[in-house]
Amino acid sequence: MKKQYLALLLAPIMSVAADDPPKVSAQEFVNLQQGETAHEGFRRAHAKGICLSGEFRSNGQLASYSKAALFETGSMPFIGRFSVAGNNPTAPDLKAPVRSLALSFAMSPTQQWRIAMNTPPVMAVKDPHTFYQQIQAIQAGPKAIQAFFAEHPESNDFLSWKAQYQPSGSFAAETYNSINAFYLVNSKGEKQAVRWTMQPTVSVSAGNLEGVDALHQEITNRVAKENVIFDWVFTLANEKDDENNPAKAWPDSREQITAGQIVITGVTPQLQGECHGINYDPLVLPTGIEATRDPILRARSAAYAESYRRRAKEALMGELEEQGNE
Amino acid sequence: MSNTQKFSLSMRLFHWAMAALVISMLAAGLLMVRSLEPWQLSILTVHKAFGVVAAVLVIARLVNRLFHQIPALPGDLSSLQKFVAKASHWLLYLLLFAMPISGYLMQYFAGRPIDVFGWFRLPAALNVDIENYAIFRELHGWLAIALMALVALHVAAALHHHFIRKDKVLKSML
Ligand code: HEM
Ligand code: HEM
């Protein structure tokens, strides 16, 4: 009898101990992302990218859900960035498994919003410490990552997305996802959990792309000819969805609202552009948008700050050195 | 100098309120820059809001100080000791002021408005300046180390007065 009680007591403790990966700090996380030798002055993740300028044209559809001024009918300029995942600012574009879009809205001195989105709609894991192990497995090679996925059934939704994903031939033709959920808060104080996607308005096949900077060249040529447009589509969670679990996809049947269009009108190489100095920390939010308790989302601020601190210091030292040499 | 034995009630309240606040701010700061836990964002938000409170408090405290007599240091201190005591106090005030200012300016140049308990927001730059951010980010870190060292010295001195010299210095603040 007693033994049974003991087992009952111990079971949760032991299962917690077995399931819980060791805790890592923001510094350890960024060390892993940065790799053996840091590329000084560059982001420790998504190091290779290109600056964008453009505006969000809001159709007013989301204004009753969020008091963020951005969603009133009208337009708001942004500084954005396309990038590919990885710590190497000169890596070949087409080798990167993930493509990204980041946006920064400086609506006013007191209201700013940073957004960083990726091509997968969900994470493979639901907390930063397991994510750390996933990155270690990726770095260790195909066998390790297979074993990792086998041990982590929560990665199912991610794997089924991966199985059908075909990289396109352009940054302009990808779908970019918030992955993490946020709350929209309206003027009555009502909260609605949402995820969002930027949906492309062109399709481009990957057929004739080549070269290390294939995607960067393609987008530069494209924007010189035409605006690049995405629809900004919000998906509303209902009570069955867990907004704190970034690994679980929400059913297609959920209500969707298109808030307007993201119109990209210019590109600039990142070292000459304004995006390079920006930390696209998705927890810089305006009034009317709030963070969920999603552990992945909540981990991002400290990690982005650590990466930003490192590269900011390197930028400053580089600048001082240059002045010293003159 | 003066013949007051004790700091005035308002000065004692300021002193201990700020002591509690600053020690919590230091602990919160050191924890939150390392943590990937879900409470990190909450502590960060509170750190910034209370940091603004700290800036207001230190100004109010200095203004309050102008209107009050403060107890003289014990007469048996050497003039060097008196100088060190006074200099360390002014340095403390300076750091208590420089901490929130550097914290705010780092966020200002990073384009991150400060939300103060949902009451109001402090403005941030519309155009981010990463090099100015770097200056104030590093300053905030270095000043925090200097502040911790100075607080440790300050506490050690207070205890030294009380237990070794057995004078009234610590009591004058209780
Ligand atoms: C625990 C999870 C995550 C960690 C630790 C992490 C870490 C980082 C770091 C350190 C950077 C560089 C920041 C800088 O120096 O400015 C970065 C950039 C980025 N991350 Fe994450 N990330 C996480 C999750 C995500 C997720 C879920 C997404 C997509 C929804 C995402 C999308 C991006 C993008 C797009 C960038 C580049 C932004 C830019 O262009 O500057 N990250 N990430
Ligand atoms: C008495 C006032 C304050 C004290 C004692 C204090 C202390 C600290 C400490 C010890 C750290 C960690 C530093 C490091 O590890 O290098 C820190 C970080 C930080 N502080 Fe403060 N702080 C104060 C006021 C403020 C204010 C007013 C703000 C902004 C409005 C602020 C914003 C920050 C931020 C954003 C960080 C984290 C930076 C990062 O993650 O890179 N602090 N603070």
TrEMBL record, chain A:
Molecular function as annotated in GO: catalase activity; heme binding; metal ion binding
Signal peptide region: 1-18
GO cellular component terms given for this protein: cytoplasm
Residues the record marks as active site: H46
Cofactor(s) required, per the database record: heme
CDD domains reported in the protein's UniProt record: srpA_like
Alphabetical keyword list: Heme, Iron, Metal-binding, Oxidoreductase, Peroxidase, Signal
GO BP terms, alphabetized: hydrogen peroxide catabolic process; response to hydrogen peroxide
Domain Catalase core residues, every copy: 11-326
The enzyme's E.C. designation: 1.11.1.-
Binding site for heme: Y304
InterPro entries: Catalase, Catalase_core, Catalase_sf, Catalase_SrpA-type_pred
Highest rank taxon of the organism: Bacteria
Top-level EC class as recorded in UniProt: oxidoreductase
Cross-referenced PANTHER family: CATALASE
Family in the record: Belongs to the catalase family.
Protein task: Has an organic peroxide-dependent peroxidase activity.
UniProt protein name: Catalase-related peroxidase
Native source organism of the sequence: Idiomarina rhizosphaerae
UniProtKB/TrEMBL annotation, chain B:
A GO MF term: electron transfer activity
InterPro entries: Cyt_b561_bac/Ni-Hgenase, Cytochrome_b561_oxidase, Di-haem_cyt_TM
Signal peptide: none
Membrane-related topology note: Multi-pass membrane protein
Major subcellular site: membrane
Sorted UniProt keywords: Cell membrane, Electron transport, Heme, Iron, Membrane, Metal-binding, Transmembrane, Transmembrane helix, Transport
Cofactors named for this entry: heme b
Localization terms from the record: Cell membrane
GO biological process: respiratory electron transport chain
UniProt cross-references to Pfam families, sorted A to Z: Ni_hydr_CYTB
Membrane-spanning parts: 12-33, 39-60, 90-110, 142-164
Protein name stated in the entry: Cytochrome b
Originating organism: Idiomarina rhizosphaerae
